[in-house]
C-alpha cells in the first residue's frame, strides 16, 4: 500500500467511475484499475462494487475511505510542515537572554518575524552573559544575547547594538544632569554592576581615582533598584536604565564606557534556516 494508491482510491470513490477518475488523475484506465486491484488484494477486502451505474463503495470501502482520507491529509500536513521547517517558517528556537537587554530585545524585528511566520515559537532562557555562554556550549540553547566583554572562543557572533553607560541616582548629585569627568564620582557611593568592574576599575585607575563601591551585585536591575532607594549611584547600560529606573538618569561623558550587545552561536553547530532568519534579523 502506498500514498499513490490511496489517492487513486479516493478519487475513484469521489467520481464513482473509472473513466472520469482516470481523466482527473491524467492516467489511463488500465493502470488505475490495476492499482485498485492491488490495493484490494493487500487489504484483503473488496472496496468497490462494479454495476451499471459505475463504482459503489462496499461497507469495507466506506470504512477504509475514512482512514485513507486521514492518511493522505496527514501526509500533506507532514510534507507542508517539513518544508516550513526547512525554510525556517516553522519550529521552536531556544534563545538565552541577559536581564540587561530588556530595553532592546525583543525589538520590532521580532514582532515582524512572528507576523510573517506565526508558527514560529520561542523558548527563552535567562542568565548572565557567562551563564548564557555556558548554556550555549552545553546545547541547552540555540542562540544567545550577551554583552561585551566575553570570551569569543568557539563562538560566532554578530554585534547589533551599542550604548553608553549611564548613572542612575535619586539625589541631585550632578548640577548639569551629566557627568563630564569621572572625578565627579570620586567619594560617591557607587552601586557596582559586577559585570563591568574591570572596565570601571581600569578607567578610575587611569585617572588616579579610588572608587567607593558601596554595593556590588550581579544584575543591572538590582543595581537600579538600590539606586532608586537612595543607596548609591548605579552605573548601568542606558537601555536598561530607561526601562527600569524610577530615579534620574545621568549621562556619562567617557568614551570607554560603551557596551555592545551581541547575538552569539556555536561555531561547530549547524545553523538551521530558522536560526539564520533570526541572525539576519539582527
Automatic annotation (TrEMBL):
InterPro entries: LysR_HTH_N, LysR_subst-bd, WH-like_DNA-bd_sf, WH_DNA-bd_sf. The keyword Transcription regulation applies. Residues 1-58 form the HTH lysR-type domain. GO terms for molecular function: DNA binding. It holds the Pfam family HTH_1. The keyword Cell cycle does not apply. Keywords: DNA-binding, Transcription, Transcription regulation. Belongs to the LysR transcriptional regulatory family. This is LysR family transcriptional regulator.
Amino acid at each position: 500500500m502506498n500514498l499513490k494508491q490511496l489517492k487513486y482510491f479516493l478519487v475513484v470513490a469521489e467520481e464513482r467511475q473509472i473513466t472520469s477518475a482516470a481523466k482527473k488523475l491524467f492516467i489511463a484506465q488500465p493502470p488505475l484499475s490495476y492499482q485498485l486491484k492491488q490495493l484490494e488484494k493487500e487489504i484483503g477486502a473488496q472496496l468497490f462494487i462494479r454495476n451499471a451505474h459505475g463504482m459503489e463503495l462496499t461497507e469495507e470501502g466506506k470504512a477504509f475511505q475514512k482512514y485513507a482520507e486521514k492518511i493522505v491529509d496527514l501526509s500533506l500536513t507532514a510534507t507542508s510542515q517539513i518544508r516550513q521547517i526547512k525554510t525556517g517558517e516553522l519550529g521552536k528556537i531556544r534563545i538565552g537572554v541577559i536581564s540587561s537587554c530588556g530595553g532592546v530585545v525583543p525589538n520590532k524585528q521580532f514582532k515582524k518575524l512572528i507576523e510573517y511566520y506565526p508558527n514560529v515559537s520561542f523558548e527563552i532562557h535567562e542568565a548572565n552573559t557567562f551563564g548564557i555562554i555556558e548554556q550555549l556550549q552545553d546545547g541547552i540553547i540555540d542562540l544567545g544575547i550577551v554583552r561585551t566583554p566575553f570570551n569569543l572562543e568557539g563562538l560566532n557572533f554578530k554585534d547589533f547594538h551599542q550604548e553608553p553607560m549611564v548613572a542612575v541616582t535619586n539625589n541631585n548629585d550632578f548640577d548639569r544632569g551629566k557627568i563630564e569627568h569621572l572625578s565627579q564620582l570620586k567619594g560617591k557611593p557607587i552601586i557596582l554592576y559586577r559585570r563591568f568592574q574591570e572596565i570601571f576599575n581600569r578607567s578610575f585607575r587611569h585617572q588616579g581615582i579610588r572608587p567607593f563601591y558601596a554595593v556590588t551585585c550581579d544584575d543591572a536591575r538590582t543595581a537600579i533598584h538600590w539606586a532608586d532607594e537612595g543607596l548609591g549611584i548605579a552605573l548601568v547600560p542606558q537601555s536598561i536604565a530607561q526601562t527600569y529606573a524610577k530615579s534620574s538618569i545621568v549621562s556619562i561623558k567617557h568614551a570607554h564606557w560603551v557596551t555592545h550587545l551581541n547575538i552569539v552561536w556555536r561555531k561547530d553547530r549547524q545553523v538551521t534556516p530558522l536560526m539564520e532568519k533570526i541572525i539576519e534579523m539582527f
